[in-house]
Specification:
773 residues; single chain; 5 domains; DHBP synthase; 24 helices; 7-stranded mixed β-sheet; Alpha-Beta Plaits
Length: 773
């Protein structure tokens, strides 16, 4: 045989190539090109292929690996090394996986929403998967929430508890079958089963738990439903009393609840999603997408005071089977947890923790290895913005330019995610919630340890990273780890970490200076004040604060975040006398201050004290406007005043008010006046409230953009990075971006991690690595 025509080739593939039906795909591809050899998963999450055949066919085979790979895979690299042909193979096979101890170089897949083929199977009365809710194949089903360790084989997942029946074994071994080598393969003869329990935890015996549950829902019940990454609480999304009942039982006064609709057509009954929103809704990740409400089909109690609602489509057979027995365009679908603790993931915990909250438990007997909340996104123009990055996206890594060190970042306090970097990739944990309780504190440590184990890292990290704020539980944990393992600890200023996170995911070089704009609710400032409306000149390692919002007193500290009327009064002390403030607020005190005049007097005294702590927070400015307009006096969830202001502002015209942006320069710094604007809005009583709301957002956007442009011009910097929770606001983010682009600036946002604090670990990691190099 001509050795110049035939060859053996070692092909190594990295990326998201395990758990996505990749080996069966390679098997069929090898048969198509008449190649002999093998394919196997490596313990590092990559795939190794060895083939023999004609060089021309091997090259076409390698090209097809990239071009025709399964849609949920992500091929990062295909390396082909040709060797001398020996003819040692007589067929092509799938070999047993390597359980290597070395750290991973590939990408392990997130959970994958149920595919259309499996949906067809459970809908077909002639299929052996008819109405079986755990139906999955090589292309879909649980991954991250199911795996215990790599490589991804059945014995290392939660399916190890369910030995395959004869039929499943036959399909698992059949290369022509969609379930060939699918680790999640199961059926009603050998797989998990649904279980029904009453509100006291007693099992209910029924042949059709879904019909029983559907009937209970129709009668107004609240039901705990166990899925693949946790437990949801569900109920009729069209019934005001059901939602009010849940609010009372969970003590969630007005926090918005998401909904799930059976089909895209049902979604269009109560909203009109854009093409970009439809793409997100129907993608295999199946996240919650914030959509503009339309009509009055859904209960107004779901998202009071807001013009958007979180919507998702079913991603499991369990959800599909429930909808099959219900005639409703949507079900309430929110995390099954008491306030302040992580979502329950096992049956015993669910029954104990949700006792008194739900009326029925629809559970199953399959273990959830890793808790994982639903991801939440919003589309601003054509740009997606993560609010919560979790199911469907974790543990996909973010590639970074820093490859030399291993770093662990603890993140911040609110809406947190931690992270680990290794070999040029940053792996963020799933959404952890607010790390302010021992339960969430424990959850963070376990989530980090799982990532560490999954990555097969056996050595200590080179550095521990956390926020500058010394009072955060995450910062305290970082100190403990640092001391116990004798590892250096690097803290990051909150807003600097925001900017570095944008630079990192957009692969901006670590020493390239950028203008960074960070707008959020709060972050510990290097001067001891509370920052939140910042314009920085930044590299990964260093920053200089060169612009910010006017600093306003914060009487009572964090009380101002809970009661925004306190923040408004503090703003007023900059331009009004005490008597004038008493007159301005007299009709609102009973709503805005729970202790009335006595509290007002204390706020006035504190606000004028020279040692009062101050804030430059964009979030607090928006809160003040929300309180001024009577939209929110008591914040019951993070971002509530600003979110209600945004919804209200969408009904107004920002161009009805003509008030110039006031930027003050002091030495080499700029700050945006806000108190004089509020003074003007109060004194000029001719404007509609909706227009005031809209104009206030415009004023903030134009003022911050102008400061960024002034600094860019002065310093000769053309790249501007935008981050922080305020940029979830569509008007503010789009307006600032437009102004900057019109001035020929290069603008970057967070697109792979949340704009809010859920993306901070990425910035902390990159800053820490640069500090120790």
């Amino acid at each position: 045989m001509d050795s110049s025509t035939f060859a053996e080739a070692l092909i190594q593939v990295t990326g998201r190539v395990q758990g996505v039906g990749f080996r069966p795909f390679i098997y069929r591809l090898a048969l198509y090109y008449n190649l002999k050899g093998y394919v196997k998963n490596l313990g590092d999450a990559g795939v190794e292929i060895v083939v023999e055949g004609s060089k021309k066919k091997i090259q076409k085979f390698a090209d097809s690996i990239v071009k025709d790979a399964p849609k949920v895979s992500e091929v990062k690299r295909v390396r082909v090394d040709f060797k001398i042909f020996t003819g040692r193979f007589h067929e092509f096979i799938i070999e047993k996986s390597n359980s290597s101890e070395k750290a991973i170089s590939g990408i392990f897949p997130p959970d994958i929403g149920i595919c259309s083929e499996c949906i067809e199977n459970i809908s077909n009365p002639n299929s052996r998967w008819w109405e079986y809710p755990f139906t999955a194949c090589a292309w879909c089903g649980p991954r991250f929430t199911a795996i215990q360790t790599l490589p991804y084989d059945r014995e290392r997942t939660n399916m190890n508890a369910f030995p395959m029946c004869k039929d499943c074994v036959n399909e698992y071994m059949d290369p022509s079958d969609r379930r060939f080598d699918a680790q999640g393969i199961t059926c009603s003869h050998c797989g998990p089963r649904m279980e029904l329990f009453d509100k006291e935890g007693a099992q209910i015996i029924t042949t059709d738990p879904f019909s029983y549950t559907a009937k209970s829902l129709q009668n107004g019940a609240l039901v705990a439903v166990k899925g693949i990454g946790g437990i949801h609480i569900t109920g009729l999304a069209t019934d005001d009393e059901v939602i009010k009942n849940l609010r009372k039982r969970k003590n969630r006064i007005s926090q918005p609840f998401a909904v799930m609709s059976p089909t895209l057509e049902d979604v269009k009954i109560f909203t009109s999603p854009t093409s970009e929103e439809v793409k997100l809704l129907t993608g295999w990740q199946r996240p919650i997408v914030l959509l503009k409400k339309q009509g009055r089909i859904l209960s107004e109690e779901l998202a009071p005071g807001l013009d958007r609602i979180g919507v998702m489509l079913p991603y499991t057979g369990i959800q599909l089977m429930l909808f099959k027995r219900l005639k409703t365009p949507a079900l309430l679908m929110t995390s099954g947890n008491p306030s302040g603790v992580p979502m329950a993931i096992n049956n015993k915990a669910a029954i104990n923790e949700l006792h008194g909250i739900v009326d029925l438990f629809l559970l199953h007997n399959r273990e959830i290895v890793n808790r994982c909340d639903d991801s939440v996104l919003r589309v601003n123009g054509k740009r997606k913005a993560f609010i919560r990055r979790s199911r469907g996206y974790v543990p996909d890594p973010i590639e970074i330019t820093l490859k030399e060190k291993i770093a662990v970042a603890l993140g911040t306090e609110m809406s947190n995610a931690a992270g680990i970097s290794f070999e040029g990739k940053c792996y963020l944990t799933q959404y952890l919630g607010d790390v302010i309780s021992l339960e969430n504190f424990d959850y963070e440590q376990k989530a980090l340890q799982f990532l560490y184990d999954l990555l097969k890292i056996t050595c200590n990290p080179d550095v521990i990273a956390c926020d500058d704020h010394p009072g955060y539980m995450t910062s305290q944990l970082a100190k403990v780890i640092s001391q116990e393992k004798d590892i250096p600890i690097i803290t990051s200023q909150h807003h600097h970490a925001h900017i570095v996170s944008v630079c990192a995911e957009n692969k901006i070089e670590s020493d390239q200076p950028v203008i960074g704009v960070a707008l959020d609710g709060a972050g510990y400032g290097s001067d001891g004040t509370i920052w939140g409306g910042e314009v920085l000149i930044s590299t990964y390692k260093e920053y200089e604060r060169r612009g910010h919002l006017e600093q306003i007193p914060m009487p009572g500290g964090d009380l101002c975040t809970e009661y925004p009327y306190r923040m408004l009064i503090a703003e007023l002390t900059k331009t009004f006398s005490n008597n004038e403030i008493c007159d301005i607020t007299k009709n609102h005190i009973q709503f805005g201050l729970k202790n009335g005049m006595k509290e007002l007097e204390l706020i006035l005294h504190q606000s004028r004290h020279p040692n009062i702590i101050k804030t430059s927070s964009a979030g607090r400015f928006l809160d003040s406007i929300s309180a001024l307009l009577g939209l929110n006096y008591h914040r019951t969830y993070e971002g509530e005043p600003a979110m209600k202001l945004e919804s209200f502002a969408n009904r107004g015209n920002p161009y009805k008010i003509h008030y110039p942006v006031e930027i003050i320069q002091q030495k080499n710094k700029y700050y945006l006046e806000t108190s004089k604007l509020i003074h003007y809005l109060i004194c000029e009583k001719k404007y509609r409230k909706e227009d005031i709301a809209a104009f206030s957002q415009k004023y903030l956007s134009q003022g911050i953009a102008q400061i960024a442009l002034l600094l860019a011009e002065k310093e000769g910097i053309n790249t501007i990075c935008l981050s922080g929770g305020v940029f979830v606001n569509k008007y503010i983010s789009n307006t600032i971006e437009k102004i900057l682009i019109n001035q020929k600036k290069i603008v970057f946002f967070n697109k792979k991690v949340p704009l809010g604090d859920g993306g901070l670990a990425l910035g902390q990691i990159c800053k820490a690595i640069c500090d120790i190099m």
